[in-house]
């Protein structure tokens, strides 16, 4: 082998080592970029989860408020209906019992019995 041949082989070996270093750096760079991308994606996913959780909680509050308002209105309507029924019942009883009350009052006034008071002593 000649010196030129040996120098050519040495140049090829150095070029191969340089290429291996470049490939190794490229792999490290790619690996680091993947880690960074995963980390960034995890942050975005976490932020998205927090946003959706907050939206869900707000929605639940609105649903509970709407249910409460609906229940409140329903209870008020039921109370108004019950009050109206009781007032109607009182009016009916008043109308039905009016004649009896008037008869009892007249009877008490007209048929008064004269009795001495219980503390009265004859003597």
Automatic annotation (TrEMBL):
<feature type="coiled-coil region">
    <location>
        <begin position="12"/>
        <end position="85"/>
    </location>
</feature>
<comment type="similarity">
    <text>Belongs to the V-ATPase G subunit family.</text>
</comment>
<dbReference type="GO" id="GO:0000221">
    <property type="term" value="C:vacuolar proton-transporting V-type ATPase, V1 domain"/>
</dbReference>
<protein>
    <recommendedName>
        <fullName>V-type proton ATPase subunit G</fullName>
    </recommendedName>
</protein>
<keyword id="KW-0375">Hydrogen ion transport</keyword>
<dbReference type="GO" id="GO:0016887">
    <property type="term" value="F:ATP hydrolysis activity"/>
</dbReference>
<comment type="subunit">
    <text>V-ATPase is a heteromultimeric enzyme made up of two complexes: the ATP-hydrolytic V1 complex and the proton translocation V0 complex.</text>
</comment>
<dbReference type="GO" id="GO:0046961">
    <property type="term" value="F:proton-transporting ATPase activity, rotational mechanism"/>
</dbReference>
<keyword id="KW-0406">Ion transport</keyword>
<keyword id="KW-0175">Coiled coil</keyword>
<dbReference type="InterPro" id="IPR005124">
    <property type="entry name" value="V-ATPase_G"/>
</dbReference>
<dbReference type="Pfam" id="PF03179">
    <property type="entry name" value="V-ATPase_G"/>
</dbReference>
<keyword id="KW-0813">Transport</keyword>
<comment type="function">
    <text>Subunit of the V1 complex of vacuolar(H+)-ATPase (V-ATPase), a multisubunit enzyme composed of a peripheral complex (V1) that hydrolyzes ATP and a membrane integral complex (V0) that translocates protons. V-ATPase is responsible for acidifying and maintaining the pH of intracellular compartments and in some cell types, is targeted to the plasma membrane, where it is responsible for acidifying the extracellular environment.</text>
</comment>
